[in-house]
Amino acid sequence: MEYEAVLMRPEQLAAASAQAQDVENVLDALAMVLLPVPIQYLWRPQLRDPGDDMVLELAVNGMGRGQPVTLVTFNRRDFLPQALNFGISVIGPSQFFQGV
Questions:
Q1: Which residue of 5, 37, 56, 65 is surrounded by the most CB atoms within 10 Å?
Q2: Is pLDDT above 80 for 64?
């Protein structure tokens, strides 16, 4: 998983004052509550970065569950305004944690 690979980088672990086991514990906890989202429609290309396109496409397909969809990213400007065109809000991590 891309997130695991990035989070396990030495510079990321150092920045978070974390150990590899900490990352594994968080990812295991997330895996317990996340729901798979089947891809029904392909919406690419929408964004400049193909990797971002995959995230937006997953968010669009996840909208069918009847819950509001919010992307949490440091990369807000790369998802706007396209995400908003689909009714998907885009917030930064600090805004997310303020609301938790």
A1: 56
A2: no
Number of domains in the chain: 2
Q: Are 82 and 57 in contact (CB under 8 A)?
A: no
Q: pTM to 2 decimals?
A: 0.73
Is residue 40 included in any domain, yes or no?
Answer: no
Burial bucket for residue 57 (CB in 10 Å: 0-12, 13-18, 19+): buried
Residue 24: give the domain boundaries: 2-33
List of residues 6+ apart from 94 with CB closer than 8 A:
none
| C-alpha to C-alpha distance for 70 and 83, rounded to whole angstroms | 9
The verdict on residue 66 lying in a domain is yes
Question: Is there a domain that residue 93 lies in?
Answer: yes
pLDDT tens, 20-33?
Answer: 999 999 999 989 99
* 41 DSSP assignment: -
